[in-house]
């Protein structure tokens, strides 16, 4: 009787030991897999970042600067896309800063902006101009920018050598006569000017909305104040 009663107990004990061994083996396998893949992922990210450290724009004093980690797992296609967007925003910002400075100096087109007699001279500079330009004029600007974006400012012919190259076999300006070092230098200059312009136009807009309404407040601090939008 004792022997018969012990058989189920021994069987249950044996099964419990086997199940524990199986669970331990599975857990060990999972831990080993995690340990194997984690360093590889980090290594891949570091390798991807290292590939962009020699790109134009990664230069002193900051060097390769990606505080938001947008290039952590990026390939060349994503980098080229981000570089294209950066260049486009930089070019627009350079035009914006130039337009702001020129109109703040009092330069205006002759004549009227609409058929009702609204003269260009009556349009103030900066953000204040948005409330003075007729709605049809703002619509024309929007449509023109859209046309440039969709049909002109792009690689139409497929001859682009780098992101932002919109020569399309027509506008060369002697580019092909430059050596590679000169080309790299000019591309870096454009990139840096665009970065500075993005900060510049942002600062002008912020300063314009401050209580002083003076985007050129630095001039006042330097002893050469600008009478911004005087008479408007």
Report what the structure shows.
The chain has 232 residues and is mostly helical. The protein is globular. The protein contains five helices and no strands. Helices cover 57% and strands 0% of the residues.
What's the end-to-end separation, in Å?
Answer: 111 Å
What fraction strand?
A: under 5%
Q: Largest sheet, if any?
A: none
pLDDT < 50 runs, ≥5 residues: 1-15, 32-44
Number of helices: 5
The proportion of residues forming helix, as a percent range, comes to 55-70%
Number of strands: 0
Brief description of this entry?
With 232 residues, the chain is mainly alpha-helical.
Topology at a glance:
Blueprint: H1 2-52, H2 76-104, H3 135-152, H4 180-208, H5 217-221
Helix pairs in contact: 2-4
Q: Features of this protein?
A:
single chain, about 230 residues, mainly alpha, globular
């Amino acid at each position: 009787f004792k022997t018969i009663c012990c058989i189920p107990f021994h069987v249950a004990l044996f099964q419990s030991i086997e199940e524990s061994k199986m669970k331990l083996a599975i857990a060990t396998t999972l831990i080993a897999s995690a340990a194997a893949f984690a360093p590889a992922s980090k290594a891949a990210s570091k390798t991807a970042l290292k590939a962009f450290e020699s790109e134009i724009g990664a230069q002193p004093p900051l060097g390769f600067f990606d505080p938001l980690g947008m290039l952590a797992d990026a390939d060349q296609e994503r980098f080229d896309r981000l570089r294209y967007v950066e260049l486009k925003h930089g070019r627009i910002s350079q035009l914006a800063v130039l337009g702001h400075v020129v109109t703040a100096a009092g330069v205006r087109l002759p004549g009227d902006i609409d058929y009702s007699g609204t003269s260009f001279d009556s349009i103030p500079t900066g953000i204040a101009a948005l409330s003075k330009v007729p709605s049809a004029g703002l619509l024309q600007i929007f449509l023109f920018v859209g046309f440039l974006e969709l049909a002109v400012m792009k690689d139409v012919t497929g001859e682009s050598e780098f992101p932002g190259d919109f020569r399309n076999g027509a506008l060369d300006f002697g580019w092909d006569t430059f050596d590679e070092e000169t080309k790299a230098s000019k591309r870096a200059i454009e990139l840096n000017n665009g970065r500075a312009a993005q900060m510049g136009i942002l600062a002008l807009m912020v300063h314009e909305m401050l209580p002083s309404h003076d985007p050129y407040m630095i001039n006042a601090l330097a002893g050469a104040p600008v009478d911004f939008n005087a008479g408007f």
